[in-house]
Amino acid sequence: MKRIVTVQDISCVGKCSLTVALPIISAMGVETAIIPTAVLSTHTMFSRFTCKDLTEELEPITAHWKEEKIGFDAIYTGYLASEEQIELLKKMFAEFKTESNLIVVDPAMADNGKLYPAFDEAFAKKMAGLCGKADIILPNLTEASFMTGLPYREDYDEAYVKEMLLALADLGAKTVILTGVSFKEGTTGVMGYDSVSGEFHYYTHKKHAKSYHGTGDVFSSAFVGAMMNGLSWQEASKVAADYTAECIRITMEDSEGCWYGVHFEAAIPSLLKSLGK
Ligand code: PXL
Question: Which residue CA neighbors atom 6 of ligand 1 most closely?
Answer without folding.
Answer: 43
